[in-house]
């Protein structure tokens, strides 16, 4: 019987616990040092461990698990350091353990529909992408809006733009402007990024100090404009609604992929996203 552990019993940890229990039942070992729940020694006896702690604690939490041959599911981003990400993957490989990062939007039905359309050739070339991820809260104290929010959009960008195993779309110029829209914020609560590739460019605007929720992505293709409203789960192409299959929860799809163990391509995605975000640090 597979023994499951969960590190982190905060907001997202509770959501993970609910979804993990659908697969493994309620017998899950939980460790949260802040809440005084469980112990790390108990976690190290598990076969698979889910990590939902602040980003800057990921490396210290994940490393000893991988060294013990434990498969790890870690919330994004893996680390705000490309070097730490590389070391974690090297450790996983050396100990025959698996390291999975929850880039949850790569399991989103709308994102996969856009990727499929683009890769079919029907839309022609990609010219520009404008991405908004704006909301009022929740506030973060460990990492900026770039790492917490824009990381989603950079992962979507790299996931959609790379056609196949033989396609390697990398930025040729990256600029981030991160700042406190609210002077009382612990870290930069807002960021604007411009990313230029050889054949297209992208503008990313992310903030948790915005007056309303706005989660829209506009893709400019040779064939016109495709708009995805994540809040309403709607895609339009040149103003006309796109029909796409809605298979279920992206988080459930992510967890299932981790359990099934076929996610070798994800390593490259994690490293590319981290490198793009780390630029200018």
Architecture overview:
This protein has 281 residues and is of the alpha/beta class. It folds into two domains: 99 residues, Rossmann fold; 143 residues, 2-Layer Sandwich (Dihydrodipicolinate Reductase, domain 2), CATH 3.30.360. Helices cover 33% and strands 27% of the residues. The protein has eight helices and 14 strands. A hairpin with a 2-residue loop joins strand 11 and strand 12. It is globular, with a radius of gyration of 19 Å.
Order of helices and strands: EHEHEHEHEHEHEEEEEEEEHH
- Return the domain count: 2
CATH architectural label of the largest domain: 2-Layer Sandwich
> Quick one: overall form?
globular
> Which spans have pLDDT < 50 for at least 5 consecutive residues?
none
Can you tell me the CATH class of the largest domain?
Alpha Beta
Secondary structure: helix percent? 25-40%
* Average of per-residue pLDDT values: 94
- CATH homology-level superfamily of the largest domain: Dihydrodipicolinate Reductase, domain 2
Which secondary-structure class do the elements indicate?
alpha/beta
Into which percentage range does the β-strand content fall?
25-35%
CATH topology of the largest domain: Dihydrodipicolinate Reductase, domain 2
């Amino acid at each position: 019987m597979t023994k499951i552990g969960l590190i982190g019993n905060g907001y997202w940890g509770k959501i993970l616990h609910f979804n993990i229990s659908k697969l493994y039942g309620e017998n899950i070992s939980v460790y949260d040092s802040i809440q005084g729940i469980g112990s790390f020694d108990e976690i190290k006896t598990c076969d698979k461990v889910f990590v939902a702690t602040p980003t800057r604690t990921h490396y210290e939490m994940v490393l000893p698990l991988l060294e013990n041959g434990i498969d790890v599911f870690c919330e994004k981003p893996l680390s705000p350091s490309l070097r730490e990400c590389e070391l974690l993957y090297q450790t996983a490989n050396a100990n025959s353990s698996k390291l999975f990062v929850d880039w949850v939007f790569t399991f989103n039905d709308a994102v996969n529909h856009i990727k499929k359309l683009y890769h079919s050739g029907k839309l022609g070339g990609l010219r520009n992408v404008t991405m908004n991820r704006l909301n009022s809260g929740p506030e973060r104290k460990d990492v900026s809006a770039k790492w917490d929010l824009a990381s989603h959009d950079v992962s979507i960008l790299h996931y959609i733009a790379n056609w196949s195993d033989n396609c390697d779309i990398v930025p040729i110029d990256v600029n981030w402007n991160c700042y406190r829209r609210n002077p009382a914020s612990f870290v930069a609560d807002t960021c604007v990024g411009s990313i230029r590739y050889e054949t297209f460019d992208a503008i990313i605007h992310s903030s948790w100090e915005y007056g309303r929720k706005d989660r829209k992505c506009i893709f400019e293709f040779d064939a016109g404009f495709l708009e995805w409203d994540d809040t309403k789960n709607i895609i339009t192409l040149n103003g006309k609604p796109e029909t796409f299959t809605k298979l279920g929860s992206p988080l459930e799809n992510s967890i299932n992929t981790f359990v099934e163990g076929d996610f070798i391509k994800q390593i490259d995605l994690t490293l590319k996203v981290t490198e793009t975000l780390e630029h200018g640090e």
